[in-house]
Amino acid sequence: RVLRAMRRSYRADRYLGIIERVRAAMPEAAITTDIIVGFPGETEDDFQGTLDVVRASRFASAFTFQYSPRPGTPAATMDDQIPKPVVQERYERLVALVDEIAWEESKRFVGREVEVLVAEGEGRKDDATERLSGRATDNRLVHVRPDAAIGDPRPGDLVVAEVTYAAPHHLVADRMLSVRPTRAGDAWEARTAQ
Questions:
Q1: N- to C-terminal Cα distance for the chain?
Q2: Which segments of 45-102 are extended strands (E)?
Q3: What does pTM read for this prediction?
Q4: CB within 8 A of 104, min separation 6: which ones?
């Protein structure tokens, strides 16, 4: 009912079916989504349905938003606008569930090797933690402790590292195992050498 009111063509059962097929083909797929809570007319039962889909989907992460009316949109003039405190409370429950599941999914990586594409500016605390950051093949953010004895990775290079810690929104790999220089790393080095 809410999806129809939002003019979205998909439904929960079809969506979960797609996720099931993706996971059958790629068991390690990190699936993300966008979720809006508090759309006009959303009941507590509707919101519980959203939480049920989140539990079934086991998202690696979700971009979560609180509905807010935008002037000129059909939703801004709909009846049954949800009071801000109700939207806030539902949002907080949603974020807590998404984070709990994301953390459980991230913990599966502890002790495993991941390949990371080193990037510039991915880790806000890289200087303070003496790490470099990048994205794993499933787009998870990974903070890697470099090892000069193995090599000196540059943004654009690929490293293999062992995950030693997991958080809801990132992984930490304190054991770098290898570095593979790339043409992207060469380009970064040429650009920064000027």
A1: 58
A2: 61-66
A3: 0.84
A4: 58
Q: In what order do the strands lie in the sheet with 141-144?
A: 165-166, 171-173, 141-144, 132-136, 113-119, 158-162, 175-180
How do residues 60-99 score in pLDDT, each as one tens digit?
Answer: 999 999 998 888 888 888 889 999 999 999 999 999 999 9
Give, for 55, the enclosing helix (H) or strand (E): helix 44-57
Six-digit token pair at 189?
A: 């080095």
Nearest to 60, CA basis, from 139, 143, 117: 139
pLDDT tens column, 15-69: 999 999 999 999 989 999 999 999 999 999 999 999 999 999 999 999 999 998 8
Distance CA 161, CA 116 (A): 8
Instruction: Give the C-alpha separation, 107 to 82, whole Å.
Output: 36
Task: For residue 173, list its beta bridge partners.
Answer: 144
Tell me the two tokens of residue 146: 């470099």
